[in-house]
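User: Hello! I'm new to structural biology and keep hearing that structure can be predicted from sequence alone. Could you demonstrate with NUDIX hydrolase? Please show me the input and the output so I can see what each looks like.

Assistant: Of course. The first part below is the input, the amino acid sequence of NUDIX hydrolase. The second part is the output, the predicted structure written as tokens.
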Amino acid sequence: MPKPDGSDLTPFSGSKLALFLGSDLLVILRDDKPDIPWPGHWDLPGGGREGEESPLDCALRETREEIGLQLTPAEVSWSTSYLRPHGRVWFFAAHLPARRAEEVRLGDEGQEWRLMSPQSYCCHPLAVPHFAEQLALYLGQGGGPLCVL
């Protein structure tokens, strides 16, 4: 079983970070290119593993590259992993003060970033579905719907 802090090197394909700035979630609108997974969908910071980096190192590097925020491992408060068809994926959460939004700078990937309530992300028709599901689990909803229709 993988270590809950994401420090082990069990094979994995990538890592994602649910990054809260104040009470809102930072999301990135993916590029609208047909050759990438989930084009034009709202995504979370993170991506594929490089070399032998740990799951947490992967999430922190991708966050720095995608939105310019440098987080320390101590700022990450939660982790889990789950299996996808392409392998194990790590999912982390971090809660930072809202003022850190001033430091966000979109990198080379994505069309834009924005802050969104976690419930809005889980309900959004263009949220990456398995990340919305993991976020709902993190928020204590047991993977059930957060939307009231």
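User: So the tokens describe the shape?

Assistant: Right, they're a compact way of writing down the 3D structure. Reading them back into a model, for example: The helical segments are 55-67, 118-123, 129-138.
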